[in-house]
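Practice problem 4.
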């Protein structure tokens, strides 16, 4: 297993991020984006996440994280799953040192892993994996807790995921192709044209895409376009007007309105904030 290890020491905190990505052409490629392990402390315990077109399986190895819903907080299950995000999500880490393992999944991987409609979990920030995988969730937690190092935990998680994928049903090839085209074009593609090329009826595409990807095709295209915009903004690759055009928006006001709908903040807020990644910000506690 080839790992990348990134020690981080910034005003945002001090931690080590260890990551494994499946080899191109492997059975997991196109299903699992990567498996990661976080170990350390954060200066800002709250983190705002934005839609990025992926889904996340989380194993909490220490005190649990919490979902923040306005003034209400909810403790996350020890093994939890985040459905395809369609809006912002705020998570609060426990104070002090913590360890977390995550499996970032493409929609096709999540559908294969759990074998059930992804529409059930779309927009939901924290689902107990016991409700999706039964006793296998406890088995994953036990393997991760028993491991003595980050590398061993990544191996344990990869093995668990691989075992389930090997005996799972996959996404309909026509749906997988349609989703891949939307991703490759960052959402800038005609859904009607893709449907015709895939040989699907309008009803079949809408029903199967929502079941196997999690949201309707047009919403998935919006998420992919937004994800591309986040990457451009994070890299500060030009003016807002230039980036709105590059990302495929009609104009800057259209981009601003769409950005606020999907993130809860403005592009200017995003640029001014402390950013962990292109799709998450440090969120000051009230």
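Answer key:
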């Amino acid at each position: 297993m080839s790992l990348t290890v990134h020690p981080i020491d910034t005003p945002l905190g001090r931690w080590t991020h260890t990551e494994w990505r499946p080899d191109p052409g492997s059975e997991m490629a196109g299903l699992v984006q990567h498996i990661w392990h976080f170990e350390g402390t954060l200066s800002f315990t709250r983190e705002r996440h934005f839609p990025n077109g992926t889904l996340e399986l989380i194993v909490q190895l220490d005190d649990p994280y919490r979902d923040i819903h306005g003034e209400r907080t909810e403790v996350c299950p020890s093994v939890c799953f985040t459905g395809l995000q369609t809006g912002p999500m705020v998570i609060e880490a426990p104070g002090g040192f913590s360890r977390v393992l995550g499996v970032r999944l493409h929609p096709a991987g999540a559908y294969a892993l759990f074998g059930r409609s992804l529409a059930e979990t779309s927009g939901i920030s924290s689902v107990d994996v016991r409700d999706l995988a039964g006793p296998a969730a406890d088995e994953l937690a036990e393997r991760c807790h028993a491991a003595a190092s980050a590398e061993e935990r990544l191996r344990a998680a990869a093995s668990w995921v691989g075992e389930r994928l090997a005996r799972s049903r996959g996404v309909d090839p026509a749906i997988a192709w349609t989703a891949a085209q939307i991703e490759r074009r960052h959402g800038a593609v005609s859904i009607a044209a893709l449907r015709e090329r895939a040989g699907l009826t309008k009803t079949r595409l809408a029903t199967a895409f929502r079941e196997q990807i999690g949201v309707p095709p047009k919403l998935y295209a919006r998420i992919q376009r937004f994800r591309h915009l986040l990457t451009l903004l994070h890299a500060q690759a030009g003016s807002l007007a230039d980036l709105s055009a590059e990302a495929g928006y009609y104009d800057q006001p259209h981009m601003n309105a769409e950005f606020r709908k999907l993130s809860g903040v403005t592009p200017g807020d995003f640029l001014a904030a402390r950013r962990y990644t292109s799709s998450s910000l440090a969120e000051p506690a009230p």
